[in-house]
Amino acid sequence: MLKKRITPCLDIKNGRTVKGINFEGLVDAGDPVELAKIYSQNGADELVFLDITATHEGRKTMLEMVKNVALSINIPFTVGGGISSLEDAALLLKNGADKISVNSSAVKNPNLIKELAQKFGNQCVVIAIDAKLIDNKWKVFLNGGRIETDLELFAWAKEAVNLGAGEILFTSMDHDGTKNGFALEALKKMSEIVNVPIIASGGCGNMQHFKDVFLESKVDAALAASVFHFGEIKIPDLKTYLKTNNIEIR
């Protein structure tokens, strides 16, 4: 069995790490490069960097910051935000990203997933999906949660994998920042539908939530932000806790 991964996430806006609740009410959480360095030194298994307003503002991901983060860490590094072409992805990979995360542009142009996978390999392509439960149906949202689509979460995840996605990063907008736990039922269902690694995102508030998501769904990684940024959970303590609960961790 693959060992589970602990993944801090840096949501970036205006050059700073931010965190909100249900994608709103963003507060400052520190300098991205400094936080990245701390996570790398303290045993994080990988890092996700999301330029959360790049698509909405119609611009590309902050290249200089990606480069600075990459230079300060020695763990796998996934970058997302404003990626809409092979050229965008190539530039980020050249500047230190190990994987690229695509969300809105993949929905608008699903063929982009196939092109990215053929050019850089499936292992480099993470499809991020932001979804919210509306009338008992998980609907996919774009542009940092601003635009509702007609796409259904599980159908889109399956299609993305068929097109070449090597990993799915699913964020429950309903759970995001609430610290009430991950969307376990949805994650359980998704892990039965797709055969690629899944990163769970949205809702982590304590160590038990990590334990629950690893034991109750087949996700490969659990992503969190504010509990790490504000020192509520220390990664070495979390790994010790998970190991004592018989969860194989990196």
CATH hierarchy class name? Alpha Beta
What is the end-to-end distance? 12 Å
Name the CATH superfamily assignment.
Aldolase class I
Q: Count helical runs.
A: 10
Q: What is the multimeric organization of the chains shown?
A: single chain
Entry keywords:
250 residues; alpha/beta; TIM Barrel; eight-stranded parallel β-barrel; 36% helix; globular
Structure description:
- There is one protein chain.
- With 250 residues, the chain is of the alpha/beta class.
- It has a single domain, classed as Aldolase class I (TIM Barrel, Alpha-Beta Barrel), CATH 3.20.20.
- Helix content is 36%, strand content 28%.
- It is built from 10 helices and 12 strands.
- It has helices at residues 32-41, 63-72, 86-94, 104-108, 111-120, 153-163, 184-193, 207-216, 226-229, 235-244; strands spanning 5-13, 16-21, 24-30, 47-51, 77-80, 99-102, 125-134, 137-142, 147-152, 167-172, 198-201, 221-224.
- Strands 1-4-5-6-7-10-11-12 form an 8-stranded parallel β-barrel, surrounded by 6 helices.
- Strand 10, helix 7 and strand 11 form a beta-alpha-beta unit.
- Helix 1 runs parallel beside helix 2.
- The longest helix has 11 residues, at 153-163.
- The radius of gyration is 16 Å and the shape is globular.
- The mean pLDDT is 91.
